[in-house]
From TrEMBL, chain A:
One of its GO terms (cellular component) is plasma membrane. This is Cytochrome bo(3) ubiquinol oxidase subunit 4. Cytochrome bo(3) ubiquinol terminal oxidase is the component of the aerobic respiratory chain of E.coli that predominates when cells are grown at high aeration. Has proton pump activity across the membrane in addition to electron transfer, pumping 2 protons/electron. It comes from Tardiphaga robiniae. Belongs to the cytochrome c oxidase bacterial subunit 4 family. It is a multi-pass membrane protein. NCBIfam families: CyoD (TIGR02847). GO terms for biological process: aerobic electron transport chain; electron transport coupled proton transport. It holds the Pfam family COX4_pro.
Automatic annotation (TrEMBL), chain B:
It comes from Tardiphaga robiniae. GO terms for cellular component: plasma membrane. Heterooctamer of two A chains, two B chains, two C chains and two D chains. Keywords: Cell membrane, Electron transport, Membrane, Oxidoreductase, Transmembrane, Transmembrane helix, Transport. This is Cytochrome bo(3) ubiquinol oxidase subunit 3. It is a multi-pass membrane protein. One of its GO terms (molecular function) is cytochrome-c oxidase activity. The gene is cyoC. It is found in: Cell membrane. PROSITE patterns: COX3 (PS50253).
Length: 129, 210
């Protein structure tokens, strides 16, 4: 009896798969994401192509900042990331990946930069024959 | 635990009571599994970005980003991928409403934008190789072709997958399995757009600024 009730309950869930906390987006959310993406893409391209800002370091910082914001926009509006889908496991996997990526990227760049700087062969002309 | 209830005459059907398991409709864990695959793919791209970050300045007295990159072409490429993202979004919305024809139409448009992206990228590669700036020229170009080429390969397989799913939808309609497959491809496609943000920022824009 109890098993039957359980089976019936399980079957009832098949009809609508929306109870997993997954967001499928709406026309409005897709358009919001698209418009934001266009703006966040156009400004960095414009900055670099016209050289609107004299200071190169500022341009680099702004371009990278826009990229980070755009990645978040894509995650939220196109990939529908939220903390509730699959009981938060997608978010956990994402956070874990971001940690690994940050360690691997910053570690590689840091180590290889210092390797380049410190291991550069020194051409000391005084010791030349 | 799951011992069948026995009666003397043995006619009763075995009943299994599973205490811990809740209902898992077929394919309910597919999306999470696919997300985990995308995260592993993300690590591949992270390694390629790291390689490019380390080798991106080693021109071996060859051409640098300023000589090679045409930002107008890259902007056009970016637009193609962005348009394909929104049209795929529209395909998903139509799929949710159960409209086969308009879903197919938006999927087709997405595929065309993807193809346009690929053609522009191949034109760029061809142009660079023609000028003698192939992957063999310098460490910078090796890492450039590996990173951007891997992304392009992903887009290629995405298009093949898209065409396969359009055939599936045409034959079997928007059944639950096809909806699940379309949702997986949706994640894949938007993920490629996210990777492209990294490519056009760190490879092209910062390369030209370098």
């Amino acid at each position: 009896m109890s098993a039957d009730a359980h089976a019936a309950h399980g079957h009832g869930h098949d009809d609508h798969g929306h109870d997993d906390g997954r967001d499928h987006g709406s026309f409005k959310s897709y358009m919001t994401g698209f418009v934001l993406s266009v703006i966040l893409t156009a400004i960095p391209f414009w900055l670099v192509m016209t050289g609107a800002i004299e200071n190169k370091n500022w341009t680099i910082a702004i371009v990278v900042a826009f990229a980070v914001v755009q990645i978040v926009v894509h995650m939220v509006y196109f990939l529908h990331m939220n903390t509730t889908s699959d009981a938060g496991w997608t978010m956990m996997a994402l956070i874990f990946t971001i940690i690994i990526v940050v360690i691997a990227l910053s570690g590689s760049l840091w180590v290889m930069y210092h390797l380049n700087v410190n291991m550069m062969p020194v051409h000391d002309m005084r010791n030349m024959p | 635990m799951n011992v069948p209830t026995q009666t003397i005459n043995g006619t009763e059907v075995p009943v299994f009571y599973v205490v811990d398991e809740h209902d898992h409709p077929a394919g309910s864990s597919t999306m999470l599994g696919f997300w985990l695959y995308l995260m592993s793919d993300c690590l591949i791209f992270a390694m390629l970005f790291a390689t490019f970050g380390v080798l991106g300045g080693s021109y071996a007295a060859g051409p640098g980003p300023k000589d090679l990159f045409d930002l107008k072409l890259v902007a056009l490429n970016t637009a193609m991928l962005l348009f394909s993202s929104i049209t795929y979004g529209f395909a998903m919305l139509e799929m949710m409403k159960g409209r086969v024809k308009s879903t197919q139409m938006w999927l087709g448009i997405t595929g065309l934008f993807g193809l346009a992206f690929l053609c522009i990228e191949l034109y760029e590669f061809h142009h660079m190789i023609h000028e003698g700036a192939g992957p063999w020229r310098s460490a910078f170009l090796s890492s450039f072709f590996t990173l951007v080429g891997t992304h392009g390969l992903h887009v290629t397989f995405g298009i093949i997958w898209l065409v396969t799913l359009m055939v599936q939808v045409a034959r079997f309609g928007l059944i639950e399995a096809n909806q699940r497959r379309l949702m997986c491809l949706s994640m894949f496609w938007h993920f490629l757009d996210v990777v492209w943000i990294g490519v056009f920022t760190f490879v092209y824009l910062l390369g030209v600024l370098r």
